[in-house]
Design brief:
about 0% strand, 5 helices
Length: about 90
């Protein structure tokens, strides 16, 4: 584990690291926050219809999404985070 920390310390993750040509360079923390937000939004889409709107699990998931979104804003990737909201909505209809 220490070897991983040493090899990734200060490293910029970019399109080559992730295997996609469309991604800008992100710090590890920015990338983690964006991926977490993406995963939480997907989970929200998956369980949204099966849980009632007042269900504690749905409220908890919504709070996690909001918190992660705020993290993205603090890390300077707010526009990328906003784009994820649009992608998840359009992706669930196709």
């Amino acid at each position: 584990m220490d070897r991983f920390k040493e090899s990734t310390a200060g490293r910029q993750f970019n399109a080559n690291t992730l295997g996609s040509a469309n991604l800008p360079a992100y710090t590890p923390l920015q990338l983690h926050s964006l991926m977490r937000l993406r995963d939480l939004l997907r989970k929200r889409e998956e369980v949204g219809d099966s849980l009632k709107s007042g269900d504690w699990r749905l409220r908890l998931l919504d709070k996690a999404i909001y918190s992660t979104y705020r993290d993205c804003l603090e890390l300077g990737v707010g526009n990328d985070a906003k784009a994820l909201f649009g992608r998840e909505k359009s992706g669930s209809k196709g």
